[in-house]
Design goal:
heterodimer; A: 6-stranded parallel sheet; B: alpha+beta; 5-stranded mixed sheet; rod-shaped
Chain lengths: ~210, ~600
C-alpha cells in the first residue's frame, strides 16, 4: 500500500515513516506542510494520505483542510487525519465533507502500530474511522433524560462502534457476534434513538455522531 | 474661596474705581448734597419770605425736580466714583433752580436767572449722550455737545439783548442788565426766528440721541434703556413747553398744566436712573443663577452662552487657554489672539494653575467690574470643571486602551503557551510514546516483568499526554480560534461533567471578545458543576446590535457571591469582562440557581 505522510515535526515525521515502512507500507513521500502535501498527491496519488492536522503556516487545521481537498479532488485517495485535538467537532467536519474513506485519529495512537495500520486499511477500504476516545467522550457525556439509558449495554457497545465507523461485519468480529445479530442491534438502536438517517453503513456514522453531539 | 478674588485680573480701564480717591469723591458728594439741600430749602423758603407762597403742589413739583436730580446725582457719584454722570445729574438739579434767583431782589440776580433759567435741557442732552460712562462716546457726540452748549449760550445771550421785562408786561421786575436793543419790533422778529431754531435744535438733538442709542450694542442698550425711556416724558415736556411758549396762547389752566405739572416728567428721569442701579443689583442675582446652570457636565459653548445672557452681551466671545498651543483658541479649537475690537474689552479668567480663558466683552461691561468679576468667577468654576472632566475623560481613554492592550497581550500569551505546549512538549511526548510502542512490540514474548514495566510506562505516558492536551485546551482551545463561539462552547459542553445546553451564533467576533465570552462560559459551567450542585446548565450566547450577551444559568443552590475572592472566580470573570468595556451581573438567590450575564461590546 502506497502512503504519503504529512507531519511538520521532523522528529515525528521520521519516526512515523520508519514505523509505517517497518509495518510493510510504502511511504512514497514524507512532507512537512499542506501545500507540499497537495502537490505530492497531485503528482503521485497514493492509496492513503496520513496527515497531521496542525501544520505551517498557521498551525491550526491545515491538515484537515488539505484532507478534505484531497478527498474532493482524488476520490480514490483515502485520508487519515492524525490530530492532537480531542474534538468531536473536527471529526464531524471531516465526515460531513468526506463520508467515506476518511478517518480522524488521535495522534496518541502512534504508540500502537496495529491500531494505526488497522485504521489505514479501513480508510483505504472506503470506511470511516473515528477515534474511540472521541466517541467515548461523546457517549459518556451527561444528558438530560439520557436517551442512551434506554439502550442495553450491548446496544451501547454497538452504538459506540458504529460511531467509530465500523461496519456491521467489523462490529460482529469485535464483539464476537454474527452480522445478523449486529444488524438487529443496529435496527433497535436506530428505532430507540429515533435516528431516521440512512442505515447505510457509511452514512450512518455521521448521523450517529450528530446525534451524540446534540 | 480665597482664589475667587483673583479670578479676574484687573481690566485695562482708563478710570477704574481704584484710581479715583474714594475720600475725595465722598467729600465732593457731601458738598453737593449739602449745597443741594440748602438750594432746595431756599427754593421753598424764598416765595414765602417774599410773601408770595406757591400752591403746595406746585412747590412740591418744582423743588421735587431739583431734589430728585441732585439726590440721585449724589447717589450716582457715590456708587460710580470717577464717573461724571452724577455730576451732570446734580448740575441739572442746580440749573433747574436758577430760575429761583428771581426771588432775590436786584437786577444782577434777575439777569442771571433770566439768562440761565432754560439752560438745564442742554445738560439733559449731554447726560443722554454720555450715559452711563459720563464720557461722550465719540467725536460726533462731542462736536454735537460743544455746538449745543455754544448755541444755547449765544441764543440766550442774544435773547437777553432784546429782552425788556417791562415791555413784556412784568411791571415789578428789575431791569435786564443785558438789554441793548429797545425796539419791540426787532425783539418780536428775534423771538420768531428763535422759536423755529429752538424747535429745530430740540428735534435735531432728539435725533442725535436716538442715533446714539441705535448704534449702541445690545449690552450697552440694556444699561441705557431705563434712562432713555425716561427721556420720553422729559422730551415731551420740553417740546410741549416750547410749543406753548412760542406758537399758541394758553388759557390759565393750560398754562398751569404745562408749566407747573408737566415737570413731573423730569422727576421720572432720575428715578429711572435709580431703577437702572437696582437693575444692576438684580444682575448679581443672575450671576448666582449661573452656578446651577454651569454645575455638572456642561456642553461646549454653554459657558459662553450663559455668560452672554448674564452680561446681556450676545456678541460675547470666550477664548479658551490651550496648554498645547500655549495660546488662546476659540470653541472650534482655532488659535485666536485675545485682542479686543473697537468698543470691546478683554477680561481674562484665571484658574489655580494659570490662565483659563478670556472673555471679549462690550466695553460697557467694564462699568460694573464687580459684576464682571463675579460672572468670571462663576465661569471659572465651570471651565475648571470642564477641564477636569476632559482630564478624567482622557485618563479614562488612556486606561481603556491600556487595559485593552493588556487583555490582548494576555490573549497572545495564552495562545503562545498553547502553541508551545503543542509543538514542543506534546510532540516530544508523542515521539517518546511512539518509540515506547515499538519497544513494547519488540518485547513481545520477552521477560514478563520487563513487559509489565513497559506497559506501566506506556500507561503513564498516555496519561501525561492526555493531561497535557487538556491543559493546553484549558489555556486556549484551538477550536475557539478556528471556529469561534459557534463551536467552542458546544465542545466545552461535550466534556462537561453535567448536561450543558448551548445556543450560540456561528458568526465571528474579535479575538478578545470571543476568548472573554468563552472564558465566562467555561468558568460559569465549572462553577455550576463544582459548587452549585446543578442538574443542568443553559448557555445562551446572542448578539444584539453592537453587544454580545453571554448568559449562563444553572438550576443549582444559588447563593454565589460575586465579590468572593476565593473559589468561584466570579471576580476574575468580571475583571476580564470590564477590561473589554463590558459589564457582568450575577443573580444568585439562595436556592434559586445562579445566572451570570456578561455583556460585551463587539461592534
Amino acid at each position: 500500500m502506497r502512503v504519503i505522510l504529512a507531519e511538520d515535526s521532523v522528529l515525528l515525521r521520521e519516526g512515523l515513516a520508519r514505523l509505517l515502512r517497518d509495518a510493510g507500507l510504502e511511504v512514497t513521500h514524507a512532507v512537512g506542510d499542506a501545500d507540499t502535501l497537495l502537490a505530492a498527491v497531485d503528482a503521485d496519488p497514493p492509496d492513503v494520505v496520513i496527515t497531521d492536522i496542525r501544520m505551517p503556516p498557521t498551525f491550526t487545521d491545515e491538515g484537515l483542510t488539505a484532507a478534505l481537498t484531497i478527498r474532493a479532488g482524488h476520490p480514490k485517495v483515502a485520508v487519515l487525519v492524525l490530530s492532537q485535538y480531542l474534538e468531536a467537532a473536527y471529526a464531524e467536519r471531516l465526515l460531513r465533507h468526506a463520508a467515506t474513506g476518511a478517518g480522524y485519529l488521535l495522534k496518541d495512537r502512534i504508540n500502537d502500530v496495529s491500531t494505526l495500520c488497522d485504521a489505514i486499511i479501513r480508510v483505504a477500504r472506503g470506511e470511516s474511522v473515528i477515534d474511540p476516545e472521541v466517541i467515548r467522550t461523546l457517549v459518556a457525556r451527561p444528558r438530560l433524560d439520557n436517551p442512551l439509558d434506554r439502550l442495553t449495554d450491548r446496544e451501547q457497545e454497538v452504538l459506540a462502534l458504529m460511531a467509530e465507523g465500523w461496519s456491521n461485519q467489523g462490529i460482529g468480529e469485535r464483539l464476537h457476534l454474527s452480522t445478523k445479530t449486529v444488524e438487529g442491534h443496529v435496527g433497535s438502536i436506530m428505532t430507540k434513538l429515533q435516528i431516521s438517517d440512512s442505515r447505510e453503513e457509511n452514512r450512518r456514522v455521521l448521523a450517529v455522531i450528530r446525534y451524540l453531539r446534540n | 474661596m480665597s482664589g475667587m478674588g483673583t479670578a479676574v485680573a484687573p481690566f485695562p480701564l482708563d478710570a477704574t474705581p481704584e484710581r479715583v480717591s474714594r475720600r475725595g469723591n465722598a467729600a465732593l458728594a457731601s458738598v453737593i448734597a449739602a449745597a443741594g439741600g440748602v438750594a432746595c430749602a431756599l427754593s421753598i423758603a424764598a416765595p414765602a419770605l417774599r410773601g408770595l407762597p406757591l400752591h403746595p403742589l406746585d412747590q412740591a413739583i418744582h423743588t421735587g425736580v431739583a431734589a430728585a436730580w441732585i439726590g440721585t446725582g449724589v447717589v450716582a457719584l457715590v456708587r460710580r466714583p470717577g464717573n461724571a454722570t452724577g455730576l451732570l445729574m446734580a448740575a441739572v438739579g442746580f440749573l433747574w433752580l436758577v430760575g429761583d434767583l428771581y426771588w432775590i431782589p436786584g437786577a444782577v440776580a434777575f439777569t442771571i436767572a433770566a439768562t440761565f433759567a432754560l439752560f438745564y435741557p442742554n445738560v439733559l442732552a449731554h447726560l443722554a449722550l454720555a450715559f452711563p460712562t459720563g464720557r461722550l462716546a465719540g467725536g460726533f457726540e462731542r462736536r454735537v455737545m460743544v455746538g449745543l452748549y455754544a448755541w444755547a449760550l449765544v441764543n440766550n445771550l442774544v435773547r437777553m439783548l432784546f429782552f425788556d421785562p417791562h415791555a413784556e408786561g412784568c411791571v415789578g421786575c428789575p431791569a435786564n442788565l443785558l438789554l441793548v436793543v429797545h425796539d419791540a419790533g426787532a425783539a418780536r422778529w428775534r423771538n420768531d426766528v428763535s422759536s423755529y431754531l429752538d424747535t429745530a435744535v430740540i428735534v435735531a438733538v432728539g435725533a442725535v440721541i436716538v442715533r446714539h442709542w441705535w448704534r449702541r450694542t445690545r449690552a450697552a442698550r440694556y444699561v441705557i434703556a431705563p434712562v432713555l425711556w425716561a427721556a420720553v416724558p422729559a422730551l415731551a415736556y420740553l417740546v410741549t413747553r416750547e410749543v406753548a411758549d412760542d406758537f399758541v396762547t394758553l388759557s390759565p389752566t393750560g398754562a398751569r398744566i404745562v408749566y407747573q405739572f408737566l415737570p413731573v416728567g423730569l422727576v421720572v428721569w432720575p428715578l429711572l436712573f435709580l431703577v437702572g442701579l437696582l437693575r444692576t443689583r438684580f444682575d448679581y442675582a443672575r450671576v448666582g443663577a449661573l452656578l446651577p446652570q454651569l454645575a455638572g457636565p456642561v456642553a461646549p459653548g454653554r459657558v459662553r452662552d450663559a455668560l452672554a445672557a448674564t452680561l446681556h452681551d450676545p456678541q460675547l466671545e470666550l477664548l479658551y487657554w490651550s496648554p498645547v498651543t500655549d495660546g488662546y483658541v476659540d470653541l472650534d479649537g482655532q488659535p485666536r489672539e485675545p485682542v479686543a475690537a473697537p468698543g470691546r474689552a478683554v477680561a481674562p479668567i484665571s484658574g489655580e494653575g494659570g490662565p483659563l480663558a478670556v472673555m471679549l466683552v462690550d466695553e460697557i461691561a467694564l462699568q460694573e467690574p464687580a459684576l464682571l468679576q463675579a460672572a468670571g468667577a462663576m465661569a471659572r468654576l465651570a471651565l475648571e470643571n470642564e477641564r477636569l472632566q476632559a482630564e478624567v475623560r482622557s485618563q479614562l481613554v488612556q486606561l481603556r486602551s491600556t487595559t485593552a492592550r493588556l487583555v490582548e497581550a494576555g490573549q497572545d500569551a495564552r495562545q503562545r503557551i498553547e502553541r508551545d505546549l503543542h509543538d514542543g512538549a506534546q510532540q516530544r511526548l508523542l515521539a517518546l510514546s511512539m518509540t515506547l510502542g515499538q519497544a513494547r512490540a519488540r518485547a513481545d514474548g520477552a521477560d514478563p516483568q520487563l513487559r509489565a514495566f513497559l506497559d506501566h510506562a506506556a500507561d503513564d505516558l498516555q496519561q501525561a499526554i492526555s493531561e497535557l492536551r487538556e491543559l493546553a485546551r484549558g489555556i486556549h482551545p484551538m477550536l475557539l480560534t478556528q471556529e469561534g463561539l459557534g463551536s467552542a462552547p458546544t465542545a466545552l459542553a461535550e466534556r462537561a461533567p453535567l448536561p450543558v445546553q448551548v445556543t450560540a451564533p456561528t458568526c465571528r467576533f474579535p479575538d478578545t471578545v470571543e476568548s472573554t465570552a468563552y472564558f465566562v462560559v467555561a468558568e460559569a459551567v465549572t462553577n455550576a458543576a463544582r459548587h452549585a450542585a446543578a442538574s443542568v446548565v443553559h448557555v445562551d450566547v446572542c448578539v444584539a446590535g453592537a453587544e454580545l450577551t453571554v448568559s449562563v444559568s444553572d438550576d443549582g443552590i444559588g447563593g454565589a457571591n460575586p465579590a468572593d475572592r476565593g473559589g468561584s472566580g466570579l471576580l476574575g470573570m468580571r475583571d476580564r469582562v470590564v477590561a473589554l468595556g463590558g459589564r457582568m451581573t450575577v443573580t444568585s438567590p439562595t436556592g434559586g440557581g445562579t445566572t451570570v450575564v456578561a455583556r460585551l461590546p463587539c461592534g
